[in-house]
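Hey team,

Filing this mostly as a record. A colleague (T.K.) asked me to run one chain through the structure pipeline before their review meeting, and I want the input and output archived in the tracker in case anyone asks later how it was produced. No errors, nothing strange. Just documentation.

Input sequence:
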Amino acid sequence: MYTKISFEEFIEQVEQRLGEYSQETLRKIIMEWAKSTPSADRRQFLAKLLPPLPQQLVSLSGEELLGEIRGLAKRVENGDYCVGWGWDHDIHEERDFGDESWA
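Output structure:
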């Protein structure tokens, strides 16, 4: 029968299991999860693979955070996240295409 475990116990067990595997084994596990992910859930799966925010970003002051946001906006304006240009059948005009999952 299924029994619930607390969040703390869950995290402890996850950490314990992670410590038992090599980097190559963890890579294989994640690849198997990716292969079994339905197409509708692939972007959500990829979003989970992002590393956690560095502590220095978490503790930024308001002005520092605004600076980071301005930097991101500048990279977007410069086309850093654009991978191509072409006709978009959904909006019936040309546009740039890129990885918009971060937005």
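Quick notes for T.K.: The chain is about 50% helix and 15% strand. The first strand starts at residue 82 and ends at 88.
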